[in-house]
Specification:
The chain is an alpha/beta fold. It is built from 5 helices and 6 strands, in the order E-H-E-E-E-H-E-H-E-H-H. The chain has helices spanning 17-24, 84-95, 111-130, 159-169, 179-184; strands at residues 3-8, 50-54, 70-72, 75-77, 103-109, 136-142. The strands form 2 sheets. A 4-stranded parallel β-sheet has the order 2-1-5-6. Strand 1, helix 1 and strand 2 (50-54) form a beta-alpha-beta unit.
Length: 206
């Protein structure tokens, strides 16, 4: 098939350094803990595709990049999630025949669904660069829509505050932000890294 689905594994975010350190020692935070095999289901309309199951190994849906490691309680960890989608695509181009693709559906659950919002435009740009027959990319995020609102206690320990901190901690300015959104939110740049302009079909419960 020339149709592909990229299924992105979910697993939440880590929103402070200590949490990210703990995460780096588990299955969602390091490729050292990845299983050897996984499986996914085609989301292309006719159900016939090649399917890439992209394991997580990050703590911010592949949005940040810091060149140097961060030392947390004497241990070095890396915030370089934004490099992983391209590395995954490079492997598929070189080993799996992705260069023959005509269509790609990007999907995922939870934080993987959020990754669809954040990464599908970059994936589409790479596909157009390297797949001569490529025609279209579609996003199908599953339960990746997170509301910007306070918590039930009404304090500052809420989703919005956490995302604002992650923006600086993982350096989302390294490529996750778009100029148009930065102009729209110059005083709140942590709002600016979710800006797909490709077709999206969201799956979320009421």
């Amino acid at each position: 098939s020339t149709k592909w689905t990229i299924f992105i594994q979910g697993g939440g975010w880590c929103w402070n350094e200590s949490f990210c350190l703990r995460r780096s020692r588990a299955t969602r935070g390091s490729s050292k803990k990845f299983p050897e095999q996984g499986s996914c289901t085609c989301m292309n309309a006719d159900g016939d595709c090649n399917c890439i199951y992209m394991l997580y190994g990050d703590g911010a849906s592949f949005s940040g990049y810091k060149k140097d490691p961060v030392v947390i309680h004497g241990t070095e960890i890396y915030f370089r999630g934004i490099t992983k989608p391209r590395a995954t695509l490079n492997y598929a181009f070189e080993n799996l025949g992705l260069d023959e693709a005509t269509e790609v559906v990007v999907t995922g659950t939870s934080a993987g669904g959020l990754s669809v919002f954040l990464q599908m435009d970059r994936i589409g740009d790479v596909m157009r660069e390297r797949a001569p027959k490529f025609e279209r990319i579609l996003g199908a995020p599953i339960v990746g829509y997170f509301l910007d609102h306070g918590n039930y206690r009404g304090d500052s320990n809420n989703y919005t505050a956490r995302m604002k901190y992650v923006y600086g901690m993982q350096n989302l300015t390294a490529g996750a932000l778009t100029p148009a959104f930065l102009r729209a939110f110059p005083d709140s740049p942590h709002y600016c890294f979710m800006s797909p302009d490709k077709p999206l079909f969201m799956f979320n419960s009421k």
